[in-house]
Amino acid sequence: MTLHEMMVDEIRDLYHAEKQLTKALPKLAKAATNDDLREAFEMHLEETQEQITRLEEVFEALGEKVKAKPCAGMAGIIEEGNDTMKEDADGAVMDAALIAAAQRAEHYEIGAYGTCIEWARLMGHTEVVALLEQTLEEEKATDKKLTMLAESEINQAALAEGGHEDGEEEEEETGRRVAKASGARKQTSRRQASKGGTRGRAKAADRRR
Ligand SMILES: [Fe+2]
Fold this sequence. Notes:
Elements: H1 3-31, H2 35-62, H3 72-86, H4 91-122, H5 126-163, H6 174-187, H7 189-194, H8 198-208
Helix pairs in contact: 1-2, 1-3, 1-4, 2-5, 3-4, 4-5, 5-6, 5-8
Bound molecules: fe (ii) ion.
Fe (ii) ion binds next to helix 1 and helix 2.
């Protein structure tokens, strides 16, 4: 097997990975309670559909048949995500877990696209490099956005929903819990303000009421 054949194989693997994601992303969007997170999943679904078209252009540029190769890696990541969605967690805790699942998918893709780009560059497939780089940039941007959503609002909201049990008594009194939660948020408010998390926090607070 030549490096060229190996590259075509990897691209077919990615083609299947993207196709699987077009089925998984609507489920993630449906399970998300945070509006910004849901929008991020919906936006990435649209991008993923374009990425599939882009991969078809890659096959064409290489003079290869458009064909998918079963991608066990992405199938496993999606299966784990499906298990996560069945967990008994709601609100921000589920949102935080959905981000964890989605970022695994993004990182898988970032690794695979990076490799294919490098191999295509090495073999002089300029058009293929340009096409794959567009997708890689979208994957990186999605990953970054998910990190931003987690760090600026969702993780903190998940923690405030009672995610930390060590050394704490269960507090049944909602008022106390809310007061405690807002205190926890205050500690990071400066960092969040710079990331524009105010709107999301207000929404998260609305849902708790
Ligand atoms: Fe993708």
